[in-house]
Design brief:
SH3 type barrels, five-stranded antiparallel β-sheet
Length: 116
């Protein structure tokens, strides 16, 4: 996955301006588990900040969970035609960097892989 190039085929505008940043071992409260994106859980940190977190990054214990790894919930707003370089994929989203050096999560349905 790391280093694959993608082209944006549909605009994506993030609803979130400030990311949730969590560290390995941090305890979070679980909110919604159901969304249009399976594999993501709505979590709240001890400061009350809420965002979606990949379920694979969490160790779930009832209505709380513990982060298995560091995570940043930054979503990247993108426009048709932009080129992105992917670093990782998780539950139908990729963590990518655009040509201006900004990074964040982008839905896979908004992009297509560039052929070499």
């Amino acid at each position: 996955m790391k280093g694959k190039a993608y082209r944006v085929i549909e605009d994506y505008d993030s609803d979130y301006t400030e990311p949730l940043v969590i560290t390995k071992g941090e305890i979070l409260t679980i909110g919604e588990k159901e969304s249009e994106w399976s594999g993501w859980i709505w979590c709240t940190n001890k400061f009350g900040k809420r965002r979606w977190v990949p379920e694979n990054y969490l160790e779930i214990h009832g209505n709380t969970c513990k982060a298995r790894q560091d995570y940043e919930a930054t979503e990247l707003s993108v426009k048709i035609g932009e080129r992105l370089i992917a670093e990782k994929e998780e539950a139908d989203w990729i963590w990518a960097t655009n040509e201006r050096g900004k990074s964040g999560w982008v839905p896979l349905r908004n992009i297509k892989i560039l052929k070499k």
